Amino acid sequence: MIRNVLGSVLALAGAAAAVLSPFRDWYDGRLGRHYRVDELFTGITAGRPGPLGSILVAFLFAAVLAVVGVVLRSRLLVAAAGVVVLGFTVLWMVRQGESVGSLTVAGDGSGLGWGVAGAVAGGVLLLSGAAVMSGRRGAGRRSVRKGHDRPYAAPGSENPDTWPPTQEPGPSVQTSTLPEPEPELYTGPDPAERHRPGPGPGPGSGSGSGSAPDADGRPHG
């Protein structure tokens, strides 16, 4: 986070320096916005371009790239903006040197001006900002780290339909499948008959008459 903030500050400062540089002297009191973009490829002339044909357009394009790169935290876009600024500045120095024979730095303003220094400083700041920024990779690492810190989900919670899990086959206690024995039925005399009184003596039998049978079953005489 701190690296992105510091890199963004450097990138925005470099974009501002690059945009302001064409409004200052570049060589012999001539402003940077008085140089045409196509003169950087064909040669320096004394003509003055319109607002949309000067070197200022290239630096505005680089500033837009830098702002978009800061918003998106893209190191590639910020670095591309720095390359554009430094590339056009170096290309101008080559063409200007061919035009006048050599580039000089004089205290009276007859040589290179502060505009060129501002353009070079802007390009260097843009490249420095791209190098300092951490980009989106830091956010990706934080999200991965947060994912590792999360507790693991309980088994089967992803698919509740399959919970609880099926039990794997293993040794188990088998119950007997034999039929239980049925209780035996009582076939003896009815217990109620035992307590029922027997029949009394028949008619004609006296109270003392009658004899009990002997052991052989015959009655005594």
Automatic annotation (TrEMBL):
Residue ranges, compositional bias (Basic residues): 138-148
The UniProt record lists the keyword Transmembrane helix: yes
Keywords: Membrane, Transmembrane, Transmembrane helix
Annotated region described as Disordered, given as residue ranges: 137-221
Transmembrane domains' residue ranges: 52-71, 76-94, 114-133
Protein known as: Integral membrane protein
